Amino acid sequence: MKLTAKAIELAQLADKEYMLSNGDELYLRVHPSGGKSWLFNYP
How far is CA 32 from the centre of its chain? Predict the structure, then answer.
């Protein structure tokens, strides 16, 4: 799934932290508090 600006904006809050992936090594981590942060999985 491509992480478009709209997909990031629509990321819903949840009771537990979760991550959305762009299919490569880039992830968006969504925190229960509503914060969002990027994670790059460097091999």
Answer: 12
**Closest C-alpha to 31, from 41, 10, 11, 16:** 16
Element (DSSP H or E) covering residue 36: strand 36-40
pTM of the prediction? 0.78
For the chain, what is the domain count?
A: 1
Instruction: Classify burial at 30, counting beta carbons within 10 Å of its beta carbon; exposed 0-12, middle 13-18, buried 19 or more.
Output: buried
Domain span at 19: 5-40
Q: What is the pLDDT of residues 1-30, one digit of tens each?
A: 688 999 898 888 899 999 999 888 899 999
